[in-house]
Amino acid sequence: MAQDLAGRVVVVTGASRGIGRRTAQRLGTHRARLAVVARSADALNTLVAELRAAGVECEAFPADVTDPAARAKLVADVVRRFGGIDVLVNSAGTASFAEFTDSTPEILRAVTEVNFFASVEMIRATQPELLRSSLNGRKDGSGWRAAVLNVASTCGRIGVPSLSEHCGSKHAITGFSEAIRLEFAQFDIDVLLVHPSLVTTDDPAKHYIRHAGKVDLDFAGAVSPEYAGERVVEALLSRRRETAVGRDAWWACFGKRAWPRYVRWLMRRKVRKFAQRHPGE
Ligand SMILES: NC(=O)c1ccc[n+]([C@@H]2O[C@H](COP(=O)([O-])OP(=O)(O)OC[C@H]3O[C@@H](n4cnc5c(N)ncnc54)[C@H](OP(=O)(O)O)[C@@H]3O)[C@@H](O)[C@H]2O)c1
Asked: Hey, what domains does the chain have and what are their CATH numbers?
């Protein structure tokens, strides 16, 4: 059932730049009340000033989402400020773009901490508020349902060389989301997945822990963060369970089901090209 976001309290992590920032801006046009989260307080404050100037109710909550104490404080502060939470958008993320052979346990932990554990723990921390929100929707007969939206990745549906840690963490959040979607159905809480393929990041140096990947990331075919943010908000409005953003994402999420051999061939071709460009490595 389509949902109206006007007046709803939406927590957006990763809102200092990229997809999270554009998602917050787009949510503002739907008159959502916004709690924007990231570590960079200055970037959040700039966003808040811009949104408030446009008449949007918005507050910055600078926090490292991998820190349990910071997460608990963040959720308590949002509830104190807005009186509850109706929607959680987990967009905070990181990646390591390089081969597994040169990786370290620390890099694997760092990627998984943000992309998987922090997202899951944000869901755990906000669940009581989301439950309350859906209960109110039942009581007032509005048909409102709270929601969790996880910004996963094409890497959550298909293995991509040079992004092994990212693929592991994004498959984890994808599988986790599918499991809790079934559990949360009884509470009228929707669990949604958005899988972007390549998105032009504001600053790739900030997005990737390592930049040494040998696979060709074709940024010519990348979508803009604005476009990705629009798809996130559309998914929240329509409650589409799974949204692929970009052509590669569509192949990874849906094309693979109908033409698995073709998609396997495409991926093998990518790796063959990779081996030709780096002979002997
Ligand atoms: N860009 C792509 O090509 C692409 C493709 C597929 C999926 N995705 C996924 O889409 C999501 C957004 O990506 P993006 O392109 O917008 O990346 P981005 O431009 O690098 O932004 C990442 C956001 O996450 C925040 N963040 C990172 N670590 C954090 C932490 N420990 N605590 C709080 N906030 C943290 C960053 O803010 P601070 O640094 O200020 O904390 C920033 O706001 C990620 O989950 C990413 O994996 C991206």
From this structure: 9-246 (3.40.50.720)
**Minimal-distance CA residue to ligand 1 atom 25:** 14
- In angstroms, what is the span from residue 92 Cα to ligand 1's centroid? 4
Which residues make Cβ contacts (< 8 Å) with residue 132, sequence separation at least 6?
Answer: 84
Measured from the Cα of 249, ligand 1's closest atom is 6
- What b/e string do you get for 136-172 counting C-beta neighbours within 10 Å, with b at 16 or more? ebeeeeeebbbbbbbbbbbbbbbebbbbbbbbbbbbb
| Probe residue for ligand 1, chosen from 45, 48, 91 as the CB with the greatest number of ligand atoms within 8 Å | 91
List the structure tokens of 278. 């780096």
Q: What is the pLDDT of residues 177-233, one digit of tens each?
A: 999 999 999 999 999 999 999 898 766 666 789 988 887 776 667 899 999 999 999
The pTM (predicted TM-score) of the whole model is: 0.96
Q: Do β-strands 208-211 and 146-151 pair in parallel, antiparallel, or remain unpaired?
A: unpaired
Closest CA to 187 of 125, 144, 134: 134
Residue nearest to atom 47 of ligand 1 (CA): 93
**How close is the Cα of 15 to the center of ligand 1, in Å?**
8
Spatial CB neighbours of 270, under 8 Å, sequence gap ≥ 6: 161, 215, 216
Q: Quote the tokens at residue 10.
A: 């939406």
CB neighbour list of residue 72: distance below 8 Å, 6 or more residues apart: 125
Residue 200, ligand 1, Cβ within 6 A: no
Q: Report whether residue 153 contacts ligand 1, using a CB cutoff of 6 Å.
A: yes
- Quickly list H helices, 185-259: 204-207, 225-238, 247-250, 256-258
